[in-house]
Write a structure and sequence with these properties.
Elements lengths: L2 E8 L5 E4 L7 E4 L2 H6 L1 H14 L15 E4 L2 H15 L4 H8 L3 H7 L8 H10 L10
Helix pairs in contact: 3-6, 4-5
């Protein structure tokens, strides 16, 4: 999973401002620290959607230091980010990927929708068609 560093700052009104150093577009405000961290994944996914829409690579997370707050992007969403970045690196468009997978473009649109609950097997198949292997570890 991709684990992004989160910054928490207390605002003048007592709320908490959430930021992501690796994704400056991702911001959130919470009434308390718990709410801020709980809803930070939504802010992270919204920022990732921006990168997808703008056809830009999603910055990968820097390694956090001990004691820093982090937010983990779920496994399927993490795999989608890695798949997206690989598509850009190989200069593949959605139509190219659809042709390689022998599917219609709407299926690729859903595959690359960070909020759509795609099957991990389909993400893995897409990676395979690009000459890559998706792997996971249990820690």
């Amino acid at each position: 999973m991709l684990t992004y560093l989160v910054t928490l700052e207390r605002d003048t009104n007592g709320s908490f401002l959430v930021g992501f150093p690796d994704l400056p577009e991702a911001n959130f405000v919470g009434d308390d620290e718990y709410e801020a961290l709980l809803n930070a994944v939504d802010a992270l996914e919204t920022a990732i959607e921006f990168y997808f829409d703008e056809r830009q690579p999603v910055p990968l997370p820097t390694k956090p230091k001990r004691g820093q707050h982090v937010v983990e992007l779920p496994v399927v969403e993490s795999a989608k980010v890695l798949l997206w970045n690989e598509m850009l690196a190989q200069n593949l468009r959605k139509s190219n990927l659809a042709r390689l997978l022998k599917v219609h473009i709407p299926m690729v649109d859903r595959l690359l929708d960070i909020r759509h609950s795609s099957k991990l097997e389909f993400v893995e198949e897409a990676a395979h068609t690009m000459g890559k292997k998706l792997s996971a570890t249990l820690v």
